[in-house]
Amino acid sequence: MDVQVAERGAFSWVQVHLDPGEQFISEAGAMFRASPNIDIDVTTRNRGGGGFLGGIGRMLAGESFFLSTYASNDGQPGDVGLAPTHQGQIQKIESDGTTDWLCAGGSYLGSSQSLALDTNFQGFRGMLSGESLSFISASGVGTLLVNAFGKISEIDIEGGLAVDSGHVVAFESTLNYSIGKAGGSFLQSFLAGEGLVMNFQGHGRIYVQSHNPDEFGREIGPLLPPRRR
After folding, report:
1. What is the pTM of this model?
2. Beta bridge mates, 116
3. Domain 2-223: what homologous superfamily?
4. Distance (Å, rounded) from C-alpha 132 to C-alpha 64?
5. Beta-carbon contacts of residue 225 (< 8 Å; ≥ 6 apart)
6. Integer Cα distance of 143 and 149 in angstroms
7. Which of 119, 161, 163, 218 sits a CA distance of 20 to 30 A from 40?
8. Reduced to 3 states, what is the DSSP secondary structure of residue 161?
9. Of 44, 38, 8, 5, residue with least CA distance to 24
10. pLDDT (tens digit, 9 = 90+) per residue, 44-91?
């Protein structure tokens, strides 16, 4: 299997080259092209299990209910092109199995079949942060694809880091976080136009996005014409 990120800019996409017997998984709707010998199976299950409850969990995490699985059907290699909904960069993460990766709402794009996907319930913290109630958890050895709105950056945390909740893409499970205010008080945070932040503690990697899709939606929404019924 060969997974390559193409056009590393605002319009990134991924080409996945599959040898016979290999499979790749993506969120439903991510495929925009495929060679003729590629079979596409839409399911709610993956290596980590799932079924109907797994699909519900992914919806709570801001992802699609279904997953798409790709494999060649004639014993020959095949290719699949994948792209996210938002304009922005894609990051390929090679998971070595020593830690899980947690993907914030809407950031999961795809993964090799060797990775097990699950949902990690965030409870009250998820409600406070403005993020999804659950994160997508990827464990095992394999390739994980995440997408961002705008530019994506990798940060190695050694101690602590505060990140605006709408800018988190994915992070290693070795990191813990708590929810806090951006300013000295909630009033200062509000007046500064900032919301709540996720205060990360520990040692591990995190990927952040330069733009917040929710804030973008709130800005552009009032400018759009009303829907016709």
Report:
1. 0.82
2. 139
3. Mitochondrial biogenesis AIM24 (3.60.160.10)
4. 13
5. none
6. 20
7. 119
8. strand
9. 38
10. 655 554 544 444 444 444 445 578 999 999 999 999 999 998 889 999
